[in-house]
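>> received
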Amino acid sequence: MKYSQKIVHNQSTLLSRYKTLVEQAYNLRQTDSALSDFSEYKAIKLLHKMNKLKFLRRDLTVLQQN
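>> returned
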């Protein structure tokens, strides 16, 4: 598997996990605010990782074109 394909696979995995955490945070907002905040914090960390991968993928695309 190419490095760029691994990045795409990791992005899709992180995106599905991110969506799950955001939904969980939303559902817990009324019942358990502490757990909701924790889920939201984890989602933000995943979003940061996804942005890093997006940047790496963009760099690989530029390098492959040259």
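>> Helices lie at 3-28, 33-65.
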